[in-house]
């Protein structure tokens, strides 16, 4: 349950929007790593477009790929990225995978999926063309 900000804290239109974001928290996973920089860029852009789509539909979403884009990733070891991502995933209600080419071979997506299953967090995959969502594990 979300606590609504006090009247006057947000402009009225923002308060109306705030109340619409009241669903489950989605952790959005997707493959990123690839030897080709253009493939990585396409994947990154696809994730951000899908995040925008979810937000426009009042879905609560966290994307580690989108979040990490503005950080100095070279200063943060992979082990810390994995730990941070799994800590956030453990607080989410759903793991949703954007089904880009390579998602089934992705080390990160595999790790996130296994952890979600261990925690009994539902796992679904979204078609990157239609955004149709299919449940893979859970209820």
CATH class: Alpha Beta
- CATH homologous superfamily classification: Hypothetical protein PA1492
What form results from the Cα inertia axes? Answer: globular
Order of helices and strands, N to C? Answer: HEHEHHEHEE
Distance between the termini: 21 Å
- Which strand order do you get reading across the main beta sheet? 2-1-3-4-5
The CATH architecture comes to: 3-Layer(aba) Sandwich
Taken as a percent bin, the fraction of beta residues is 15-25%
- Work out the helicity level: 40-55%
Largest sheet: 5 strands, mixed
Query: Runs with pLDDT <50, length 5+?
Result: none
Secondary-structure class: alpha/beta
Using only CA atoms, what is the Rg? 16 Å
Total DSSP E strands: 5
Instruction: Give the total of domains.
Output: 1
Q: Count every helix, treating DSSP H or I runs of 4 or more residues as helices.
A: 5
Q: Whole-number average pLDDT?
A: 88
3D structure, described in words:
The chain has 139 residues and is of the alpha/beta class. The protein has one domain: Rossmann fold (3-Layer(aba) Sandwich). The chain has helices at residues 12-20, 37-56, 64-68, 78-89, 107-118; strands spanning 25-29, 60-62, 94-98, 123-126, 133-137. A 5-stranded mixed sheet has the order 2-1-3-4-5, sandwiched between helices. The protein is globular, with a radius of gyration of 16 Å. The mean pLDDT is 88.
């Amino acid at each position: 349950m979300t606590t609504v900000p006090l009247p006057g804290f947000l402009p009225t239109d923002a308060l109306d929007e705030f109340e619409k974001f009241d669903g489950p928290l989605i952790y959005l996973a997707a493959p990123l790593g690839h030897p080709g920089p253009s493939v990585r860029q396409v994947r990154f852009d696809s994730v951000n477009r899908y995040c925008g789509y979810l937000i426009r539909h009042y879905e609560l979403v966290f994307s580690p790929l989108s979040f990490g884009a503005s950080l100095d990733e070279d200063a943060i070891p992979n082990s810390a990225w994995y730990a941070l991502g799994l800590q956030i995933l453990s607080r989410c209600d759903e793991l949703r995978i954007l089904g880009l080419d390579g998602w089934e071979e992705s080390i990160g997506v595999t790790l996130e999926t296994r952890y979600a299953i261990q925690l009994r967090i539902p796992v679904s995959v979204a078609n990157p063309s239609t955004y149709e969502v299919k449940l893979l594990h859970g209820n």
